[in-house]
Amino acid sequence: MLTTPSKRALPQTVDARKLTGQGVHLTGVFTGEQLPRLAAAVLNIDEPVDVELSFNMDEQGTRTVVGTVSAKVAVTCQRCMEGMPLELSSDVALGLVWDEDGAKHLSSELEPWIVADESAQLSRLVEDELLLALPFVNYHDEGDCQGVSHFSTGEVEESSEPNPFQVLEQLKRKD
Predict the structure, then answer these.
(1) For residue range 95-154, what is the model confidence (pLDDT) as tens digits?
(2) For the chain, what is the HEC assignment?
(3) Is the pTM of this model over 0.90?
């Protein structure tokens, strides 16, 4: 029987400047405990968060971080208020800069990642990307949602009771 090797845990902080200079490719995972803001925004983080990032320097000398982050989480359906699974995924395309002024000089394809010190919070970067990928409102598909069964989409029944304004309508016609 074949087993897949477990992915290695990534460090929470890295020297991003050094990694971009060396052209390092990181593949690994973060646990839900390492991403407290994401854990607070969802019901549950079902599996370790997958991270694949390449740290490089392009031909213009811009330090870049490109890759993907993905997670399987559980969120609340806003229709039935029950939990539902959701797959989050975000493509990362960042330009590593030292300050706000450096961010102004990045190409439009890159978002700035401001790293003022030698150490950069890789876990915060991953968490930020997943929080931005999280939908504002979550719903089950209509066939899967228990909240939809409480609502009727049928025709409105006509009342057989006499309309109290019918007399006024008749008076209006006489004029």
Answers:
(1) 999 888 888 888 889 999 999 888 899 999 999 999 999 999 888 877 777 765 555 566
(2) CCCCCCCCECCCEECHHHHHHHCCEEEEEECHHHCHHHHHHCCEECCCEEEEEEEEECCCCCEEEEEEEEEEEEEECCCCCCEEEEEEEEEEEEEEECCHHHHCCCCCCCEEEECCCCCEEHHHHHHHHHHHHCCCCCCCCCCCCHHHHHCCCCCCCCCCCCCCCHHHHHHHHHC
(3) no
